[in-house]
Amino acid sequence: MQRDKTETLIRQVSQKTLAEMVGTTRSRVNYFMNKFRRLGFVDYNDTIVVNGALLEDFLRKDALGSRHTAKPTAAA
Predict the structure, then answer these.
(1) Fewer Cβ within 10 Å of end Cβ, the chain: N or C?
(2) What pTM, to 2 d.p., does this model score?
(3) Which residues, in sequence order, are bridge partners of residue 43?
(4) Are residues 59 and 6 in contact, defined by beta-carbon separation less than 8 angstroms?
(5) Across all residues in the chain, what is the average pLDDT?
């Protein structure tokens, strides 16, 4: 992954610790970390590198998509 000024480094945190931080299991953290790596959102070995530009672009597109696909609620 290309390193640039929009990356965030997170040093030496275990999957167990991440799981405890977000209230899930280590196996779910493993699943999503591998998925995020495949998508290019993170790269990791001893250090987690977050690709902020790619993640920000994804979140922006998701927010726009959610806004446009939301179903109207019935008036009370």
Answers:
(1) C
(2) 0.62
(3) 49
(4) no
(5) 78
